[in-house]
Amino acid sequence: QVQLVQSGAEVKKPGASVKVSCKASGYTFTNYFMHWVRQAPGQGLEWMGLINPSNGNTVFAPKFQGRVTLTRDTSTSTFYLEVSRLRSEDTAVYFCARDLLYDGDYSYWYFDLWGRGTLVTVSS
Amino acid sequence: QSALTQPASVSGSPGQSITISCTGTSSDVGSHNLVSWYQQYPGQVPKVIIYEVDKRPSGVSNRFSGSKSGNRASLTISGLQADDEADYYCCSYAGGSSGVFGGGTKVTVL
Prior knowledge:
The structure holds two protein chains of two kinds. Chain A is mostly beta strands. Chain A is 0% helix and 52% strand. Chain A has strands at residues 3-6, 10-12, 18-25, 32-39, 45-51, 58-60, 68-73, 78-83, 92-102, 106-107, 113-114, 118-122. In chain A, the strands form two sheets. In chain A, strands 2, 4, 5, 6, 9, 10, 11 and 12 form an eight-stranded mixed sheet that branches. In chain A, strands 1-3-8-7 form a four-stranded antiparallel sheet, with no helix packed on it. In chain A, strand 7 and strand 8 form a beta hairpin. Chain A starts with a strand and ends with a strand. Helix content of chain B is 0%, strand content 43%. Chain B contains no helices and nine strands. Chain B has strands spanning 9-12, 18-23, 35-40, 47-50, 64-69, 72-77, 87-93, 99-101, 105-109. Chain B is globular. The termini of chain B are far apart. Classes of the chains: A mainly beta, B mainly beta. Chain A binds chain B through residues 35, 37, 44-47, 50, 59-63, 95, 97, 108-112, 114-117, and chain B through 1, 3, 32, 34, 36, 38, 40, 45-46, 48, 51-52, 57, 87, 89, 91-93, 96-104.
């Protein structure tokens, strides 16, 4: 079954870090970029960054550069998003979403499969 | 890298056609034919309904269509139905392997 299974909800204090996982199954792991998108309560979608599963190369939206880390574990087909120095504005649902690769490092830039999302709540 | 501009809300009666605009810049929408649209119901995961400006994934109704002119992309929903009531988001490649979403449009069926 083709799916992305994300880890469960987290509650963190301001200044802490959180690590969210996204396990891919049912398709060839290295054929798709993995993107991370977040959605604050009642707000829109926000693109955070992507990782190339073949080489681990990452790209981030400017506002997340330096505070977000994307990694992957090829042995378990699992992707990870880590956000450090959390603040209340980081309270959101975090989605992983795949995007078909071609020619090794290019994609069609659309997300045909999404995880169900992980709610991260930042509160003192 | 600013969010693409979408109207906050659009409404229409059943059977009518509505169009949602998505305005970017010459660095994103205007430079690449990599615009996609997503439909999201409350509490649910977004679903792609248009990719590469005007292509529909298998299984998506042909009542949904996309287009682009200059820095503006558009999503048209024809024959509006009650279950089209949802939030819609555009997304564009913005160069340098980065991308950007629009702020979202709430569609109301009157």
